[in-house]
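// run 5 | inverse folding | seed 20
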């Protein structure tokens, strides 16, 4: 095959769902698709992970919600959303027309809220559910469910029982004492895929007022500052799952802003990546990464994205 005709297949399979490429818009950074339609070609994306949804509408946190920090940003939005019923009726039809795989990110304050929300989404046309047990900037639920292996397993198992039609991906917290222990407990409880990592538990203080910047005090750190940590966690999780003979795909998240960043995560064991904060700076980031990954495969005579792996 000549260089001029060489092509590469970027498609990936996550829990039985085919993505045209491994680049997914991260939850909380891409709205419900409409917001970026005029700025970038959404149809080229592998998938879209919706802004976090809860069973009933939430107004989110009061006060300041975003704070810039070196090489990143803090956010304390607090899961503001219209609720799963409104999403299914008003936002999902438009999302379905865009082309990418649709992943509904689901959160809650209590186990029953997660279970009922998953049950509703299970009957919708979303392709997959991402169970958010790792949000650091809400006072109840969220990250609390993702810190302890036993607590995480109970919630995942309960949601999996009602989530019979959709693959279940669990979004893990980097703040857990043992991410490996939580991940294995989630897999044993029925998780079909794992996404790692959510934002880091953080805070900021306004030195002029001598008060915390956020009314919620705790926020989530994202952006390039966390990328090396996230990469290491994905690498360790990949090897943990390999040692446990758990064939569960990993979606890497954390500070990915360019082609090289994405390639690192894919080489570290991720099947796909989610891109978040970088989209705020450049709405075309994901399209550029997709093109860059394709060019890398072609230049290195790799016919399939699965050919990417770290050299030992």
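// decoded
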């Amino acid at each position: 095959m000549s260089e001029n005709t060489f092509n590469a297949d970027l498609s990936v399979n996550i829990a039985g769902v085919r993505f045209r490429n491994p680049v997914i818009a991260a939850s909380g950074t891409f709205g419900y698709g409409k917001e970026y339609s005029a700025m970038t070609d959404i149809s080229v994306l592998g998938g879209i992970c919706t802004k976090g949804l809860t069973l009933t509408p939430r107004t989110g946190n009061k006060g300041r919600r975003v704070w810039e920090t070196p090489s990143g940003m803090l956010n304390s939005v607090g899961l503001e959303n219209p609720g799963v019923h409104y999403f299914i009726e008003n936002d999902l039809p438009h999302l379905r027309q865009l082309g990418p795989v649709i992943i509904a990110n689901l959160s809650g304050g209590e186990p029953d809220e997660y279970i009922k929300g998953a049950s509703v989404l299970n009957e919708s046309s979303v392709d997959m559910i991402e169970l958010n047990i790792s949000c650091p900037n809400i006072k109840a639920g969220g990250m609390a469910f993702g810190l302890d292996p036993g607590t995480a397993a109970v919630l995942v198992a309960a949601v999996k029982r009602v989530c019979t039609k959709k693959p279940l991906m669990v979004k893990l917290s980097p703040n857990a004492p043992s991410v490996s222990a939580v991940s294995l407990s989630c897999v044993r409880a029925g998780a079909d895929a794992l996404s790692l990592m959510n934002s880091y538990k953080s805070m900021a203080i306004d030195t002029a007022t001598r008060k915390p910047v956020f009314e919620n005090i705790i926020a989530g750190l994202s952006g390039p500052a966390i990328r090396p940590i996230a990469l290491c966690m994905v690498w360790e999780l990949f090897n943990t799952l390999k040692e446990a003979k758990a064939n569960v795909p990993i979606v890497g998240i954390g500070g990915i802003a360019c082609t090289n960043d994405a390639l690192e995560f894919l080489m570290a064991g991720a099947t796909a990546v989610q891109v978040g904060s970088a989209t705020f700076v450049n709405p075309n980031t994901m399209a550029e990464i997709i093109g860059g990954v394709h060019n890398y495969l072609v230049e290195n005579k790799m016919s399939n994205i699965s050919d990417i792996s770290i050299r030992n």
